[in-house]
Design the sequence.
């Protein structure tokens, strides 16, 4: 099933960059616009104060030289020159003295500012005139609105340009991913040796390429191992099946006495039991590979478990002319049947390869923090280093030509490794100085 795309990385990144750009420009332009607005207010206030002072000086001079009538004549004469402003005068007692008309060139908008001041007028009753001068700054307000529109347009255009540019750049930068996807599509079951490669790998992509190639290495090894495993299984099953078929065909070829048929059935039963043991071991390994863990019970003495296994193998040890010794002990909460099975496999392996008349040693000792090492040592022919690496592989035999190689299907040590993993441990093997040590570690709790 092909999953549908929920979003585009390039599109999402482009949109975010465009939004961040517009947000930053909006903040910058807002700060600039507020600063300009504040400066314009200060300029307007200073201009208003200056105009008020000029008017006060002119009217004070007119009152001094010509009196009330000269002052009125002057303000009326200057009225046309005061467009978009309004001058209002009151006597000291509050009676109106003069006011510009509120219509025509003196009509004002809501964008006004006023300044109140007093004019010394000794010639008038009360000795002064009260004045209010109002200026319409709508032109400055319009200028501010125009700049606000310009800022908004610039912000939107910048966002659009950043979106388009970043989208183009992101698509260009993501081309290596398309190349990797094409290379990945070229990988098939017949081309597991193919690896990803980029002419100019980016720092961010290199770990992904390396991890994918490492995964392909593991996959190729697993497939090769699986193919070998299938071939080994077929080989192991072919011999007992061929024996079963051959014995049965011979028995059915002509009439035979009951005793002969009984012997044939017993031989077939042995082969069937061998097949059943092989299948059971393979099922156990399959469960271990799927992550099955050991069912730990109460804390038990590993030396006692080893003694039980040794007692079960006494006949084989005596037949092989071997002595056995258990060294060390440790308490551990383990799955006792599994641990005894691992010890039985190790002991059986040592009995087959130990030098006659030697002593097999079961060594139990602490290995690391909360871990225990269990080893079975035997004297005999050393194992080559290249064989040690495969000692725990399924169906692997160091010497397939040995007389007893066909009686053991090569899963014993693989089961030991599986039991070790089920107890959070690992298998161990070493061979030097005529002594071979094979065992495992496990976590004690």
Sequence:
């Amino acid at each position: 099933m092909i999953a549908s795309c929920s979003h585009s990385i390039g599109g999402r990144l482009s949109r975010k960059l465009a939004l961040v750009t517009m947000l930053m420009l909006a903040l910058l332009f807002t700060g600039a616009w507020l600063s300009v607005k504040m400066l314009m207010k200060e300029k307007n206030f200073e201009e208003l104060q200056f105009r008020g002072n000029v008017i006060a000086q002119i009217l004070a001079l007119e009152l001094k030289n010509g009196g009330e009538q000269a002052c009125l004549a002057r303000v009326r004469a200057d009225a046309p020159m005061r467009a978009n402003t309004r001058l209002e005068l009151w006597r000291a007692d509050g009676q109106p003295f003069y006011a510009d008309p509120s219509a025509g060139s003196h009509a004002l908008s809501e964008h006004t500012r006023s300044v109140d001041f007093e004019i010394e007028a000794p010639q008038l009753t009360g000795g002064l005139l009260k004045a209010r001068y109002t200026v319409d700054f709508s032109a400055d307000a319009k200028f501010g609105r125009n700049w606000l529109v310009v800022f908004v347009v610039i912000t939107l255009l910048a966002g659009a340009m950043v979106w388009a540019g970043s989208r183009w750049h992101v698509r260009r930068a993501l081309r290596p991913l398309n190349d990797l996807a094409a290379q990945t599509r070229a990988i098939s079951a017949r081309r597991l040796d193919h690896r990803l490669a980029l002419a100019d790998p980016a720092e961010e992509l290199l770990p992904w390429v390396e991890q994918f190639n490492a995964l392909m290495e593991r996959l190729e090894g697993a497939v090769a191992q699986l193919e070998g495993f299938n071939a080994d299984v077929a080989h192991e099953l072919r011999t007992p099946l061929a024996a079963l078929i051959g014995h049965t065909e011979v028995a059915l070829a002509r009439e035979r006495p009951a005793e002969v048929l009984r012997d044939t059935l017993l031989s077939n039963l042995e082969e069937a039991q061998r097949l059943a043991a092989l299948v059971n071991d393979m099922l156990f390994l399959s469960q271990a590979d799927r992550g099955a863990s050991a069912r730990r019970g109460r804390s038990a003495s590993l030396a006692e478990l080893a003694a039980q296994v040794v007692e079960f193998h006494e006949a084989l040890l005596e037949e092989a002319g071997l002595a056995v010794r258990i060294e060390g002990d440790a308490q551990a909460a383990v799955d006792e049947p599994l641990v005894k099975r691992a010890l039985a496999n190790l002991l059986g392996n040592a009995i087959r390869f130990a030098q006659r008349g030697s002593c097999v040693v079961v060594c139990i000792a602490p290995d690391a923090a909360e871990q225990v090492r269990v080893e079975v040592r035997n004297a005999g022919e050393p194992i080559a280093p290249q064989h040690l690496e495969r000692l725990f592989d399924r169906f692997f035999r160091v010497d397939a030509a040995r007389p007893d190689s066909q009686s053991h299907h090569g899963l014993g040590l693989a089961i030991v490794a599986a039991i070790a993993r089920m107890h959070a441990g690992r298998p161990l093997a070493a061979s030097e100085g005529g002594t071979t040590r094979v065992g495992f570690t496990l976590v004690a709790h």
Q: What stands out?
A: Residues 400-407 have pLDDT under 50 and may be disordered. The first strand starts at residue 85 and ends at 91. The chain has three domains: 9-168, 206-289, 299-443.
